[in-house]
Amino acid sequence: MKLNLKNPIVFFDLETTGTNINTDRIVEICYLKIYPNGNEETKTMRINPEMHIPEESSAIHGIYDPDVVDCSTFKEVAKNIARDIEGCDLAGFNSNRFDIPVLAEEFLRVGVDIDMTKRKFVDVQVIFHKMEQRTLSAAYKFYCDQSLEDAHTAEADTRATYEVLKAQLDRYPELQNDVAFLAEYSSYNKNVDFAGRMVYDENGVEIFNFGKYKGMSVAEIMKKDPGYYSWILNSDFTLNTKAVLTRIRLREMSNLITK
């Protein structure tokens, strides 16, 4: 089934130095851009992470330090990537929990301002897990009846993710061929920040999703315990979490001034 698109959608996959969204870096990115008229553009690039790639990570994706030593750094390609995905919705496999937070951190780290708040995020893994509870290779075999060659290479995984989503739309009539619906369906919760440290409650209010104030209003805690804000800013949280929390704090301060 062809995707019903209002905006271009970019399927993408990252290979990284590890799984810590705070500190690990991208070593390869591939994205497949699908336009509403069905046209496709694809791009794959290796990236110098400016740090050692641990052997356990290289064993998975096959990318070693010598492979990226002469490649561009993320800072050198960030503006081009931002331009390529401007105005696009985003999709991937486990992308809501990993790829999107990592990409957002990389942009923030090099000072490239990209607003993702108006994007829709479709996570094909969440749809798959809700329907079948398996891995990408199993999903590709199950939905497309093909074996996934070169698994854990960004290009193969990106293409397989796109093919799986189209097959999911064919298989499940309850899935609407609409990116807004798919984005909502493929989200387990409504994150305020990409790491899920803050989420929206049933009334659309930002609440903390961790620690001693879990389940409590972020705005109220900022008033009650302003030191908590300073603690988060000086602790090992993602840049995105800190930026979102700062935005909420400034909004609440502005509301107090205008009252």
Describe this structure in words.
- With 259 residues, this protein is α/β, with parallel strands linked by helices.
- It has 3 domains: 9-128, 2-Layer Sandwich (Nucleotidyltransferase, domain 5); 136-186, no CATH class; 198-258, no CATH class.
- It has 11 helices and 7 strands.
- It has helices at residues 55-61, 65-68, 74-85, 95-109, 124-131, 136-144, 154-171, 179-185, 218-224, 226-233, 239-258, and strands spanning 9-16, 26-34, 40-46, 89-92, 121-123, 198-200, 206-208.
- Strands 3-2-1-4-5 form a 5-stranded mixed sheet, sandwiched between helices. Strands 6-7 form a two-stranded antiparallel sheet.
- Strand 2 (26-34) and strand 3 (40-46) form a beta hairpin.
- Helix 6 (136-144) packs across helix 7 and helix 9 crosses helix 10.
- The longest helix has 20 residues, at 239-258.
- It starts with 8 loop residues before the first strand and ends with a helix.
